[in-house]
Structure prediction request, 276 residues.
Amino acid sequence: MNNEELKEVVKGKYSEIAIQSKEQNESSCCGATGCCSGIDYTIFSENYDKLEGYNPDADLGLGCGIPTEFAQIKAGDTVIDLGSGAGNDCFVARAIVGEKGKVIGVDFTQAMIYKARENVEKLGFNNVEFRFGDIEKLPVTANKADVIISNCVLNLVPDKEKAFSEIFRVLKPDGHLSVSDVVLKGNLPEKIIGAGEMYAGCVSGAIQLEEYLAIIKKVGLNGIIVQKEKQVVIPDEIMLEYLSPSELTEFNESGAGIFSITVYAEKPNCNTPGCC
Prediction:
């Protein structure tokens, strides 16, 4: 599939997920369809229950980390969440920035935008907004954000260098990002890479950890730190929908792995002598 076809697959899957609850996603094998022939979208998710600002209506169990945990968000900051879904991380960020801060969520699935706007309307927040838009061309002016967060979304973007270039543009000088995402160590089988369901499930769109960090550096961000890393194991019964038993054994013995990471990086202040 080309980039636009991949985006349509993602839009379709996440539009279906948007109309379900977290409980429905967790009780079905593949989240969006209720069948057992695809990736479980909740395999990667973390528990938000005890976080200030957590709103169960906004939690669809789709993340692979808690980016706000390490994001160094301060009261009064402007925070942008890329791939904001139903608003889960936005509402947690809002609890930190307070009344004087601002949170902007961006998502390219219209059904998610509708759901997020319903949630913010119920909560009555006037400093949280949700914008429809593509991460490769953000609907945000330059030098806007103190902090950018994202949770298990950038792996879904076909042109990751373009996405990180947009992050650089939108961050204020001295601003920073803290993003949770899925990366690889070693190679996935070709049958997994070619599966649209596995792409939408945050697996086959993932790239090598070293390549991921190199892209962040290439666009001009520095101070790059992997704040958290954990291996994610896809159940054999899901992998066997795409691989034969012998192919699965070969993959399991290859040493390759799928990992969720949370990464920090900073935009330099080019007004500082010798900075750029």
In short: The first strand starts at residue 78 and ends at 82. The chain has ten helices and seven strands. The first helix runs from residue 3 to 18. Strands lie at 78-82, 102-107, 128-132, 145-151, 171-185, 222-232, 257-266.
